[in-house]
Amino acid sequence: MPFKLRAKIFKHFVVFGLLATLNFIPFLSKAQALSTSKPQPNSAYLFVYFTGNDKSEEAIRFAISADGYHYRALNNNNPVIKSTGISATGGVRDPHILRGANGKTFYMVATDMVSANGWDSNRGMVLLKSTNLIQWTSSKINIPQAFPQFAGVNRVWAPQTIYDAKAGKYMVYFSMRAGNEPDKIYYAYANQDFTALETVPQQLFFNPSGGACIDGDIVQKDGQYHLFFKTENNGAGIKIAVSKELTSGYVLQDKYVQQTTDPVEGSGVFKLNDGTGYILMYDLYTKGRYQFTHTADLKTFKVIDGEISMNFHPRHGTVMPITTREAETLLQKWMPASDVVKTVQAQGLKPINIVLDTNTNKLYLPFLPGTNLKSVKLKFMQMPGISIKPSTAVDFTKGGVRLQVTIAGHKPVKYQLIAVKNHNPVLAGYYADPEILYAEKTHQFYIYPTSDGFTGWSGTYFKAFSSADLVNWKDEGVILDLAKNVSWAKRNAWAPCIIEKKINGAYKYFYYFCAAQKIGVAVADNPSGPFTDLGHPLIDKLLEGVSGGQQIDPDVFTDPQTGKSYLYWGNGYMAGAELNDDMVSLKPGTTTIMTPNNNFREGVYVFYRKGTYYFTWSEDDTRSENYQVHYGTATSPLGKINVPSANLVIAKNKAEGIYGTGHNSVLQIPGTDEWYLVYHRFNYPNGITMGEAAGYNREVCIDKMEFNADGSIIPVKPTHKGIMPVRVNANK
């Protein structure tokens, strides 16, 4: 975890956590001939969004979906319109798109803002217009300049557009603030060309409870207008006000409709094409992800996050239904064959580790151990105007498989698909900080990781995985959920460790974990839980003499020489203490500062071999490709750590594209001198391209660890191949 986290979370957080698995369903049936004499039914969806608080991320991006649940970024998730060409500030946020009343024209509005200039820095918006979703004309609107009576305005946020049938005009509504007054929602009418606002902004709605009122979104249903908006007073969240008139008379329905206790903003509602209701989505900006809910009546909402997938990280955006022809136009312009082929799914496939060699058009498909490659049914995200052959099951046992992707208007592209059975990563999905245990009770191996893939290390639950051979792993599910099982902290579930102890003839499992930069302990009778939290943190403050760092990354160790158990922890410093026999408290007077050198960062792990106590730890930063493991030795569990000049355990393998190798645990096969290093790395192959986000999109690997005759550790070379199955002789 990072050395220091910012205590202040910005209103708009950076980049959403990647979902661990893309679960696309067929996109659309084969495109049919469309008549131009009448409007065509909507059959797909266009998602417009921006991605974060960096200036390069404050731009309009597009994604597409068949069903409103499964989305794929267009243009490789790059902007479809350059912000510098349309905005006054050089960036745009919060884009909203609307189909015009004639069914053929599209209107888009966005906040003209660069967050780096401050949240009170913007004065206007951008208006855009298109007839084909590809080419857009644009205009910049500066509210104080256009309307001098609003000279004191310092925020103009999240504009949206709706057609006012009575006025025969397009109404733009947005939140606005002057000085330190609460934000209110205003509206004004655009001119006929949609290049300016031709009426003075009028107040549409304010928060009757006090505080700000932002991010308005109006949905018309059953002759009424439903205004979704965000409050920013006590209990901030999303509420609805309803009126029979578009521009007045809104009555507050005084309840929050978001289905989470996390902070939210940027609600967007769209109607499903199949008539099954509406989707309300909103930005969980401190989590870096969206939440999707379904509603039939705009009154009750059910979370459907498990049904949603996307290969990008959106921030405040909107979804608009589109026709098959419009979907074809977008796909032909902004989805290359290389993106289509990477939507492949198959039983046993690890989708986040697919590698496409664009020089040779070879697609390497990593399969889980034990997958039957004789008859593999490949599934692709089906899209209008796109065909993929073959469409039948394929046989990888005879070598590579030929595939052809044809996009209407483009030449066919041929690929060779190659099945790969590497064992790293060992867990399918994003996980980090792995702790490994061999349980005497079950004669199984277990990995206890941080659940990763959440922006800013914002995961809130822990899982466990079991295996009989270190290669084939079973997901045991969530074993501890901060929201449900821990009363003293609800955020940042990080870096657990565990130990098996036999107490009064029965096995007990003591699980030490981080939450909100504190260390807690939970206890269970079985290695896969259920675990019961102690009810308060075990460690929640810095030690005397330590001026910085965090109380994270615990490690628990039982000395085979004495049977005594010890707990170690620290980020920026390293501490150790003996545990009392209850295993849930520290023995007074034993806490020791043990920082081995100036390069120590975090992630200590302790093990014993042939009379020597080994201490491993991570150096650099988990966001860095140079994150790596080093070691030292001691003659006792709390003794001085001696650091040899050659002390590297593992570092990146640039030739293999393996980066960010760190935060390890160590496994000794019982009864042998056979050792394995369990560690995390950046996701392969995408992590190295993700910038700092690579530091929370990590995966777990295992490689063999060996020693020289003098007991020094031979540096471990990280591999994709991993290890072969290992079994323990339980009779020894």
UniProtKB/TrEMBL annotation:
Q: Which UniProt keywords apply?
A: Carbohydrate metabolism, Glycosidase, Hydrolase, Polysaccharide degradation, Xylan degradation
Q: What is this protein called?
A: Glycoside hydrolase family 43
Gene Ontology molecular functions:
hydrolase activity, hydrolyzing O-glycosyl compounds
The UniProt entry, under InterPro entries, shows: Glyco_hydro_43, Glyco_hydro_beta-prop_sf, Glycosyl_Hydrlase_43_Enz
| PANTHER family per the UniProt record, alphabetical | ENDO-1,4-BETA-XYLANASE (PTHR43772), PUTATIVE (AFU_ORTHOLOGUE AFUA_2G04480)-RELATED (PTHR43772:SF2)
Q: Mind telling me which Pfam families this protein's record contains?
A: Glyco_hydro_43 (PF04616)
- Specify whether Hydrolase is a keyword of the entry: yes
Gene Ontology process terms (BP): xylan catabolic process
Q: Tell me the domain of life.
A: Bacteria
**What family is reported?**
Belongs to the glycosyl hydrolase 43 family.
Quick check: keyword Hydrolase in the entry?
A: yes
